[in-house]
Amino acid sequence: MPHDHKSVPARGISRRRVLQTTALASAALAMPGIVGRALAQSSLKVAAIYTVPFEQQWVSRIHKAANAAKDRGDIEYVASENVSNTDYERVMREYAEAGNKLIVGEAFAVEQAARAVAADYPDTAFLLGSSFKPKDDAPNFSVFDNYIQDASYLSGIIAGAMTKSGKIGMVGGFPIPEVNRLMNAFMAGVKETAPQTTFQVAFIGSWFDPPKAKETAFAQIDGGADILYAERFGVSDAAKEKGVLAIGNVIDTQADYPETVVASALWHFEPTLDAAIAKVKAGAFKAEDYGIYSFMKEGGCSLAPLGTFEGKVPEAAMKLVAAKEAAIKAGEYTVEIDDSQPKSS
Fold first, then answer.
1. CA end-to-end span of the chain, whole Å?
2. pLDDT tens across 177-197, in order?
3. Is the dihedral of CA 72, 297, 132, 175 positive or negative?
4. Can you tell me whether residue 210 is helix, strand or coil?
5. Domain 149-267+299-329 maps to which CATH number in 3.90.640.10, 1.10.155.10, 3.30.470.20, 3.40.50.2300?
6. Which homologous superfamily does the CATH classification assign to the domain defined by 12-145+269-282?
7. What is the pTM of this model?
8. Residue 306, exposed/middle/buried by CB under 10 A (0-12, 13-18, 19+)?
C-alpha cells in the first residue's frame, strides 16, 4: 500500500544505499519456468524500491526484514525511498542492470510498467506488492500483500471492549483491497465484543499525509468516536490531542503514544522475504502468490503486546482474544478476507 502521489523522485539507485557487503556467485541448473541458477555463495544481491519514506508503516516492515537478512549475512541490500511512480520503471531497470538478483517493491500504481521490466530481465527475480495475481507468462514476477486480517480482527475485539460511546472512527489511505481487508477484519472483531458499534470510515487519498489524516480523525472525534483505527500516520496524533484511544496498524507505535495506542496489528515481512531469498538461492524462484506468508499461522502477523494497557482491557475480551488466536494458529478458525470497501454505519 505504499505508492504516494506526492513522492519525490529518487536520485537513481544511489539514494540512501543501505549496504555493500560480500559478492554474489552463481552455479548451474537453469530450470524451465524458474528464474536463473542456483547460487553457490550465501550472499544474494537484493534491491528494494519504495515510493514513500523508509519510516512509512508498510515500507518500514519490508525494510526491517531486509536489514535482518543483511545482518545475518544472507544478502547484500540496497534500497531507494521516495521514488515517484513516473520514476519507478527507470529505477527498476537500473537495479536489474546492476546485477541484483532479487528486486522487492510495490506495483500498486505501476503494475503494467513493473511487469514490462520483469519481462526484459528474465534472470532477475521480482517480488512486488500487488493487488493482482501471478501470471504464467511472467515466471519471474511474484506478488505479495499484507494479509494481516488475523491480527486486525484480534485488535478489533479489544477495541470493541474499550469503546464507551459505541462509535469508532477509521482513517485509511485508499479503498483498495490491501486496506479494505484489514478494516473489515477489524470491524468484525469489534462486533464480537460490541455488536451495536457504529463506524465512521474515511480515506484520505494518500499513503503518507499525516496532516490530512489527523484532520480527518479530528472530524471523526467531533462525531463522537472515542476510538480511532489508525491505518495511517497522523491519526494517533489526533487521538492523543483529544484524549481518545487508538488502534495501530502494521507497526507498534505505543512507545510514542503510551496513553493512546491500546493495541496494534503487526505485520512481519520476514517469512515472505526469507521464502523468496531461499527460492532464488536454490534456483527455484517462480511466479507465486506470497500472500499466505502474512497469515498468523505462518508467523506473518501478530497482535502487539498490550504494554501500558496491560490489565486495562476487560478480562473477558482478552480471554476471547487468546481463544481466537489459538484457533487461528491451529487452523480451526479462519478470519474472513473481505476486500470490499468498508462503509460508515
1. 25
2. 889 999 999 999 999 999 999
3. negative
4. helix
5. 3.40.50.2300
6. Response regulator (3.40.50.2300)
7. 0.85
8. middle
